[in-house]
Write a structure and sequence with these properties.
With about 240 residues, this protein is an alpha/beta fold. The protein has a single domain, classed as Divalent-metal-dependent TIM barrel enzymes (TIM Barrel), CATH 3.20.20.150. Helix 5 packs across helix 7. The relative contact order is 0.15. It has a seven-stranded parallel β-sheet with strand order 1-7-6-5-4-3-2. The protein is globular, with a radius of gyration of 17 Å. It has eleven helices and seven strands. The longest helix is centred in the middle third of the chain and has 20 residues. The termini are close together.
């Protein structure tokens, strides 16, 4: 079975208001690991996760803006894979902006690899709606420029919202894709503010995605949960565990 994780951004408000109770709830859900965000900014993470028997397998962090700080935080947490979670949508509008991203990621891969940590890129929808570069879709153009050691975390929901055939994308990049963000909802653009919903209750066709990804890490995420985030996470984890 795939490794099950949760992107902690889902519970950002709950972690702010009652960190201990939130992590205690997560510890009862049967997750294999969690995926923190902004690890360079939260010195309390390692101790707090350990206190609840939680481990961070992957993380989102500012690989490009603060690589040294991110590396130190990753080593403290024992993180094995770090993803750059965002690149200005305006820089996806032309070849120069995409090349800038690739050059920046390629420039830090050696230092992280030397520490036994993989790095990668996490998408939204705008990478798939950006203009082609010489007939090549913008996302694929980026991947073609990346050092082959750089892996991919595919946000399956945003890829679908951006018009990409997600099972075909998974097939194209195979083992290069190590992690999936698994979410459900109305498949509206990322800047619409529409809420995500419990897995299996929205418009995503999750079955072929999950069936193609038994050896990948499945990361539950809600960009916005409108009802009860902790309970919606619990139901979504149960959905994945039943697969």
């Amino acid at each position: 079975m795939a490794t099950l994780s949760l992107q902690l951004y889902t519970l950002r408000d709950q972690l702010t208001s009652d960190r201990d109770a939130t992590l205690a709830a997560l510890a009862t859900m049967g997750l294999d690991e969690v995926e923190p965000f902004g690890i360079e900014n939260f010195a309390w993470l390692a101790e707090a996760l350990a206190a609840h028997g939680l481990k961070a397998g992957s993380a989102h962090a500012g690989l490009i803006s603060e690589p040294e700080k991110v590396l130190a935080a990753a080593q403290a947490l024992g993180v094995k894979t770090i993803f750059q979670p965002f690149w200005d949508p305006e820089k996806w509008q032309d070849e120069a902006g995409i090349r800038e991203l690739a050059t920046a990621l390629n420039g830090v891969v050696d230092s992280f690899a030397a520490a036994g940590i993989a790095i990668g890129y996490h998408n939204h929808d705008f990478e798939f709606t950006a203009p082609d570069v010489d007939g090549v879709p913008a996302y694929d153009f980026l991947v073609s420029l990346l050092d082959p050691r750089i892996v991919l975390e595919v946000d399956t929901y945003w890829a679908a919202a951006g018009g990409r055939d997600v099972p075909a994308l998974l097939d194209t990049y195979g083992d290069r894709i190590t992690h999936l963000h698994v979410k459900d909802g109305p498949l509206q653009p990322s800047r619409s503010g529409a809420a995500n919903v419990v897995l299996g209750t929205g418009l995503m066709d999750l079955t072929p995605i999950l069936e193609a990804s038994a050896n990948r890490t499945w990361v539950v995420e809600f960009d916005f949960a409108a009802i009860d985030p902790v309970d919606e996470v619990r139901q979504s984890v149960a959905y994945l565990k039943a697969r």
